[in-house]
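subagent[fold] <- orchestrator: predict structure for attached chain, return tokens only, no commentary.
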Amino acid sequence: MPATITERIKVIDVDTHITEPADVWTARVSKKWGDRIPHVEENPEDGKWYWVLGGKRGQQHPVMASAGWKEPYPSFPPSIEDVDPASFRPRDRIERMDEYGMHAQVIYPNVGGFGSGRFMDLNEPELQLDCVRAYNDFLTEWCSVDPNRLLPISALPFWDLDQTIAEIDRCAKMGHRGIIFSNEPDSYGQPALSDPYWDRLWATAQERGLSINFHIASGDTSVLQSGHESLSPVARVSMASVMIFMHNARAISETIMAGVPHRFPDLKFVSVESGIGWVPFALDAMDWQWLNNGGPTTHPERTLLPSEYFRRQYYACFWFERSPVTRAILEHLPDNLLYETDFPHPTSMSPGPASIADVPKDFIEETMADLPEDLLRKILHDNAAAIYHVD
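subagent[fold] -> orchestrator:
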């Protein structure tokens, strides 16, 4: 019997998350901050456990750990005891990776936000920095169980550029494979992505060989509350999820039009959990607008079209897409695409009683078996291996 795709190719899953244990910060941050340290506590009104940051109750502890759960989102496991242990235990994660046919996984956070913005709710710069550093230390320890398969991505104290640069250097020395950054830092009162203020960040990441990873929902998430009050929770979350997937088009367009890839030609950008179906239109639109509005005349120093900067330095991730259009994109942009599962989030490729997902290795076999081998290797391994420094 011929070998399957995941038997032939060491698939790198470029977007997964960790369900942070309750003691991530209480075990690592100075006790002088007391209850302002992020911690988990029970709400006596409903008996459920919530994260508390800076004295404010936030998300429920296991809200994003839906893999294998018996009911569809927005239902989720009521406690950490009810979730798949692969969500928070590294050795269990590796077992699940083997089951799914994934060789390596890139690891993103939950509690601090997908761009670290939630740490700003602490309203104390020193504590905010301590919490970012504590998370990065925790993630380093977590991934050390098998650093060839569990790939840490650094959180940053992006509200302080000097500390951000220092943290990039510190995490690079610890073996982190990239950095997460908000796709809309201006939504947190910081300079916009197009502001040259961030050039020191881009330069440091380029020098260290670390990619900039724009995870969806890392900026303005007000869309989660949008729509008419008559919308059911299912309809609201379904609508909001689709809209959030598209937000990274702004980050890509803004950085390209600001000349960031022109000034930093070796810096790589990844659009995480955004899908790929919209990418060809975005590239066509950027080129059309740039040429139609006189971009080459205004900026003669830029020798490439926006789409050419994208092809040279940008990547987008896909997971559940299976339409003929997606197939054409895989064949059209093989050097710019990456595969993810989003484990253990509600949209993840995690089969279960309430999920329509296939086991990732089966999905890959079903939808990609007739693609050329060199294309498969690019989108399932080679592109990600180069970005995240996987041997």
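orchestrator: received. Logging for downstream: The radius of gyration is 20 Å. The longest helix spans residues 125-143.
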